[in-house]
Amino acid sequence: MNQEAHARAKQLVAQERVEGISQAERDWLTAHLQDCTRCAELTRQTDEALRSMRTAAIPLPRGLASRTQFRVRLRAQELREQAPQRRALWFACTLSWAFGIASAPYVWRLFAWFGERTGVPKLVWEVGFGLWWTIPALFAAAVLLMENSRKGDQPDWMSQGS
């Protein structure tokens, strides 16, 4: 047998245990394992290793279940406390944008009138109008960044579930 056939068989043995293989590949592998004792032995060793891993006892630290339940409850409480704040933030942003869209023509006229009265160049009052629109978005971004930076100050074990 050539090395390519052995390499393919080795790959199919591993792939069959993890994600499965097609019927054509299974047929080829069965035929190959009947002819090749080396690959058949590899398959037997793989099955034996997997069987021993399934039956191996893994010692867990004392109190792991209660600590895990505590962390899950703590995280659920944290999410419940944050949910109304975020809902209020989204509501405020939506309301602000709706008001901004409805009042845009009036604000545009106000900026134009102010620019004419004070002699401010047209580009300056147009930029001012643009900033008028971006202030709510900048405010929301600042709030979210402050919230994320506050989470970044927490120890790693507190933010593992995030």
Description:
The protein is about 85% helix and about 0% strand. The mean pLDDT is about 85. It is mainly α. It is elongated and about 95 Å long. It contains five helices and no strands. It has two domains: about 55 residues, no CATH class; about 80 residues, no CATH class.
Number of domains: 2
- Uncertain runs are none
Class per helix and strand makeup? mainly alpha
First-residue to last-residue Cα separation:
52 Å
Biggest sheet layout: none
Number of beta-strand segments: 0
Roughly what is the average pLDDT, rounded to an integer? 83
The best one-word shape is elongated
Percent helix range: over 70%
Bin the strand percentage: under 5%
How many helices?
5
Cα radius of gyration in angstroms: 33 Å
Strand and helix order: HHHHH
